[in-house]
Specification:
- It is built from 16 helices and eleven strands.
- By secondary structure, it is α/β, with parallel strands linked by helices.
- Helix 4 packs antiparallel against helix 13.
């Protein structure tokens, strides 16, 4: 026993003090690696994104910035997005090709902006409703078979990118008019601005439609190039100054009742990223989906109040007569395109099948929220906000 004790005492085993000193050094090194990821793992990777929106007072550019910040935050700074406004590198309609070619790593726009390449693009954001809101269209995209059809559409137009979606937009207003329009005859022959398949729908209603970028809408209405217009929401519309050229604002329309942002990511760039950063780009879109929508509800309603109270804008709900004629227009347009293009029909059939089942549940399950609102605040049209 005494011999064993001597053997242990004379061995090379480090003392307790040396052991804890070494452990402390190791722990400090590990902490430094966590606190300073750029030192441990290299400089952050920066992706160049161009939005379809101008910088400054523009809520859509702000929402693109929200997504970029989420990517940076989620990655701990290892992945950054250099967000540029419209025109910084390419024009709005060139964003998809620029991302595909690697001129840009990413974009922030809507699918209606590549409607000219294939009308099916509008079905992923500005298509017929069938009772669907943008929330349900996004659910169809991710859970109802829509994504495979979207990717097939990208291949057909030659776009080589990975697309993610964010921000289920509330139904867009019918827009700004020189007077209160309640009958279909009130809008027939009227020169009107919109984009995507809505151009065909409103043409079918007898309107004369022009496709103009957002920044050109207000000047065009001011000079008389157009007589009426829509863009998207009370915040964006007021930022464009539409209240200065019209005092009649019609909310709620089927021409574009379910849209969302498309965020294209160059496929080569995406595939070069780590699985973690790929997941961040995708999951940040889900986070932005929620955050952008929450922001929209607060800002859109606040700016509608300003339009009514400060700018004396008359706000109306679009009449059922006009809405019914819009639906007839959709039936005609969808029928015409489907008869000519089997792929277009394939997408429409998928949406109809999804809408028939999902909206049966939702519409029967949702209580009449308007009834609850009016029970508390009185008739909707008379409520002052």
């Amino acid at each position: 026993m005494i011999k064993n004790k001597k053997s242990l005492k004379g061995s090379k085993t480090p003392s307790r003090r040396k052991f804890f000193k070494a452990a402390a050094a190791t722990g400090a090194a590990a902490a430094t690696a966590v606190a300073m990821p750029n030192v441990a793992f290299g400089a952050p990777q920066t992706l160049k994104m161009q939005a379809a929106w101008p910088s400054g007072a523009n809520i859509f550019f702000e929402m693109a910035g929200d997504y970029a910040k989420m990517v940076g935050d989620m990655s701990g700074g290892s992945l950054k997005i250099d967000l540029q406004p419209v025109g910084a590198v390419v024009k709005t309609g060139e964003i998809g090709q620029a991302v595909s070619d690697g001129v840009l790593d990413m974009g922030h726009w809507v699918t209606a902006y590549w409607y000219g390449k294939n009308p099916a693009a509008s079905l992923f954001g500005t298509g017929p409703s069938y009772g669907l809101s943008s929330q349900e269209v996004m659910a169809w995209m991710e859970e109802g078979g829509g994504r495979a059809l979207y990717e097939e559409t990208l291949a057909k137009v030659g776009y080589d990118y990975v697309g993610v979606f964010a921000m289920p937009m509330p139904a867009q207003p019918f827009g700004w008019f020189k007077k209160n329009v309640t009958k279909v005859s009130d809008v027939k022959g009227m020169k009107y601005r919109t984009v995507g398949l809505a151009t065909n729908v409103l043409t079918a209603m007898g309107m004369v439609v022009r496709q103009l970028p957002g920044g050109e809408i207000q000047p065009a209405m001011k000079t008389g190039l157009i007589e009426a217009a829509e863009f998207n929401n009370p915040t964006s519309d007021s930022q464009f100054g539409m209240q200065d050229v019209s005092k009649h604002y019609h909310l709620g329309s089927f021409h574009q009742s379910q849209e969302m942002f498309e965020i294209p990511i160059n496929k080569k760039t995406f595939n070069s990223l780590s699985p973690a950063n790929q997941a961040i780009l995708k999951n940040a879109s889900y986070a932005a989906n929620t955050a952008n929508y929450f922001k929209a509800l607060v800002r859109y309603s606040a700016d509608l109040s300003k339009l009514m109270n400060e700018h004396k804008v008359n706000v109306y709900q679009t009449s059922d007569a006009i809405l019914a004629e819009q639906l007839k227009g959709w039936d005609k347009v969808v029928g015409d395109f489907s008869s000519k293009d089997p792929f277009f029909k394939k997408i429409v059939d998928s949406q109809k099948s999804y809408a028939k089942r999902v909206m049966k549940y939702l519409l029967m399950n949702q209580p009449n929220y308007r009834l609850a609102y009016e029970n508390e605040f009185g008739p909707l049209a008379k409520v002052k906000i």
